[in-house]
Amino acid sequence: MTSTRKLESNKRNASRSTGPRTPGGKLRSRSNARRHGLATRIEDDPAAKVGIEDLAAILAEGRDEFERVEQSRALAESHFDLRRIRAARYNVFLRMGDLEEGSASDLETALHAIDKINRYETRALSRSKRALLKSSD
To answer: Does a structural domain hold residue 28?
Structure first.
């Protein structure tokens, strides 16, 4: 059971950490996950959706089996996600080329962005590998 003192402490701490309160702070926090757009699901991208459906149909080879269609869709989504991730990394590399005379902090920021992008790529590759392993069962 939690003590009264601990409950009061929790309430005080919670009241201080309610997130941004000013309109500017709220506006900034809304775009936190959209810096590079990789946090959004690839199937929510209208441009990629058509390509995903086309590639999934090709990979399913005209079969109507539910598992085969779902595995094909997962592979197609991984493919388009990897394309998007690699394009984001390419854009960071292009900006790094402009950093030849830049500051060390600019280079550090670019390297941090590449590190984040690499994590997205690792996840996408894992999803692709899982779909391939399921299809070989």
So the answer is: no
Tokens 């090709």: give the residue.
Answer: 58
pLDDT in tens, the chain (137 residues): 789 999 888 888 887 767 777 776 666 666 555 556 777 888 888 889 999 999 999 998 888 888 888 899 999 999 999 999 999 888 888 877 766 666 777 778 888 888 889 999 999 999 889 888 876 66
Structural domains in the chain (count):
1
Q: Within a domain: residue 6?
A: no
- Contacts for 128 with CB less than 8 Å, ≥ 6 apart: 74, 75, 78, 79, 82
CB 80 within 8 A of CB 52: yes
Residue 11 inside a domain? The answer is no
* Residue 65, phi then psi, degrees to nearest 5: -65, 130
- Neighbour count for residue 47 (Cβ, 10 Å): 8
Query: Which residue range is the domain that position 127 belongs to?
Result: 37-135
Backbone φ and ψ of 22, nearest 5° = -85, 155
Asked if residue 112 is part of any domain, the answer here is yes
